[in-house]
Amino acid sequence: MSKLWSGRFTEETAKSVEDFTESISFDYLLWRYDIRGSIAHAGMLKEQGIVTEEEASEIIVGLNEIKNEIESKEFEFDPALEDIHMNIEAALIEKTDSGKKLHTARSRNDQVALDIRLYLIAATDIVIPRLITFQKTLIKVAQTHIDTIMPGYTHLQRAQPVTLAHHLLAYVEMFERDKERYTDALKRIDTLPLGACALAGTTLKIDRKYVAKELGFSRISDNSIDAVSDRDFVIEFISNSSILMMHMSRMAEELVLWSTKEFSFIEISDAYTTGSSIMPQKKNPDVAELIRGKTGRVYGALVSILTTMKALPLAYNRDMQEDKEPLFDVFKTIAHILYVINEMFKHIKFNKERMRKTAAEGFSLATDLAEYLVTKGMPFREAHEVTGNIVKYCVDKSMDLHELTIEEFKAFSDLIDNDIYSRLTVEASVKGRKSYGGTGEVEEQLIRIREKVDKDWTEE
Predict the structure, then answer these.
(1) How many whole angstroms from its chain centre is CA 367?
(2) In Å, how far are 59, 171, 173 from 443, measured between CA atoms?
(3) Which of 131, 224, 230, 228 has its CA nearest to residue 188?
(4) Which of 124, 265, 268, 395 is the most exposed, fewest CB within 10 Å of its CB?
C-alpha cells in the first residue's frame, strides 16, 4: 500500500526504514483516542461546511466500524503505515472515499498531541482513584493501631517511640501530595492542540471551540507552534510518577526490613511472597522488592523524555516519537503497583509485642527525660547535657533509664523527683506528645486526613 504522504516521492520507502521508523507496535494504544478525536474533527468540518453532512456521516460511521473491529481484535495493524493515525485513516479510506477529507485542517503533529493528552486524562482518572483507595486502606489499618507502639527511627537508629498509626499516616500524607500533583497536572493536560495543524495553523475556517467542547477540553492552545512541540505534560506526568515511586520505594524498603527476622515487625501473607528454589525455609518479600526495583524503571523514563526534549528546535521533530513507550510503561507500572500494594497491605500482620519491646530499648526515652527537666525550669541545652551524662552512666552500668534509683538520678540533678518514673514509659512518651501533628494526637490526625483524602468518606 502506498503511503498517504507519498505524492512527492519517486522511490518506495526501504523496508529497513519502515521497520526502524514504525510506531504502530506501541502507539496502537492510542487508537481509542485517535478515533474519538477524529469523530469530533469530522463533526467540526461538517459544522463549518468544509465537508457535507453526508460525508461527515460516512466518516463517522466508518470510524465507529473501525472502533468495533479493533475492540473485537479483527483489525489488522500494518507497520508499513507507520503509526496508529495512518492505520486508521487508511482503513477509513478503504471504507469510504469521504475518508480522504478527514485529514483536512489537521496534521499528524497536532493529532498525536491530542491523542496523548486524551490518553493522559484517562490515565490520571485511573491513578487518582487508586491512590485514594490505597490511602483509605492505610487509614483503616492505622485506625486499628492507634495504641500500637513502635520505635520511630532517624538515621535508621532507634530514636523515639511513636505509634504505628502515626507512622502509616506519614505515608498517607505523602500520597496526598502525590494526588495533588496529579490533580494539578490535569490543568495543563486539559488543553486542546488540534487545529494547530503542522505548526502554523490553517487557512481554512475551522472552529476549535467546537472541537474543544466535543472532547471536553476547557482550554485551547494559544500558540500553534507550542501546541505541536509541547511535551511538558508528558514530562510532568512521568515526573509526578517518579515522586510517587520514590514514596512507594521508601514504603517497600521498610516492608522488606520489617519482615526480616532481625526486625520481626510484620508478616506478609504467603499470597504476596515467594519461596526460594534452593532454600526451603525462605519466604521472600518479592512484591515489595519489585516495587522498590521498578522505581528505577520509572526514573529512567523521566531521564529518557527529558533527554529527548532537551535540545529540540521548534516545532515538531520525529525524536518526539520516543515519548510514548516510556509514558505507556510508566502508567502501566504505577497502575499495577497501586493495585497490588493495596491488596498486599490488607494482608499484613503486625507484631505488636515485638514493636513495643523494641520501642522501649536503646534509651528511646532520653528526650522525655530532657523535656522533664525543662518543665522543672532547666534550660534545654543544660537538660540535654545532663541527660547525656545519665545515658553514659547507664551504658557503663548496663542499665536502662527506668532502672536508676532516685538517688542515682539526683546525683545528676536535684530537679529530678519520683515523678520521673511515670514519664519513663513508652506509653507516657507517646501520649504526652500532643503537639499538633505529634504522635500523641494521632486520633485528631485521622480525622483531618480522612477529610483530606475523601470529603465524602464512607466505610466500605
Answers:
(1) 36
(2) 59, 16, 15
(3) 230
(4) 395
Written as one string, the DSSP assignment of 130-141 is: HHHHHHHHHHHH
- 119-130 burial by CB neighbour count: b if 16+ within 10 A, else e? bbbebbeebbeb
DSSP 314: S
CATH classification (class only), 110-145+164-357: mainly alpha
Cα angle for residues 83, 34, 217 (degrees, 5° grid) = 140
**Cell triple for 13:** 520507502
Residues of the chain by 3-state class (helix, strand, coil), percent to 5: 65, 5, 30
CATH number of the domain at 358-449, out of 1.10.40.30, 1.10.10.10, 2.60.120.560, 2.60.120.10? Answer: 1.10.40.30
What is the DSSP secondary-structure string of 3-67? -TTGGG-SSPPPHHHHHHH--HHHHGGGHHHHHHHHHHHHHHHHHTTSS-HHHHHHHHHHHHHHH
Q: What is 12-104's CATH number?
A: 1.10.275.10
**Residues 214-234 as b or e (16 or more Cβ within 10 Å = b):** bbebeebbeebbbbbbbbebb
CATH 1.10.275.10 domain span(s) along the chain:
12-104
The mean pLDDT of 91-117, rounded to a whole number, is: 97
Write the DSSP string, 254-312: HHHHHTSTTT--EEE-GGG-B--SS-TT--B-HHHHHHHHHHHHHHHHHHHHHHHHTTP
Whether residue 91 is preceded by a cis peptide bond, meaning omega within 30 degrees of 0, is: no
Taking only the tens place, the pLDDT of each residue in 263-313 is 999 999 999 999 888 888 888 999 999 999 999 999 999 999 999 999 999
- Is residue 285 within 8 A of residue 274, CB to CB? The reply is no
Give the end-to-end CA distance of the chain in Å, rounded to a whole number: 55
- Which grid coordinates are listed for 54? 453526508
For residue 114, the tally of other CB atoms under 10 A from its CB is 29
pTM over 0.85: yes
Residues 434-458: tens digit of each pLDDT: 999 999 999 999 999 998 897 766 6
Residues of the chain with CATH 1.10.40.30: 358-449
Under 8 Å between Cβ of 117 and 64: no
Instruction: Provide the annotated active-site residues.
Output: 155, 276
- The mean pLDDT of 363-381, rounded to a whole number, is 95
How many C-beta atoms lie closer than 10 Å to residue 249's C-beta?
20
Q: Where in the chain is the domain with CATH 1.20.200.10?
A: 110-145+164-357
CA–CA gap between residue 210 and residue 352 (Å, rounded): 60
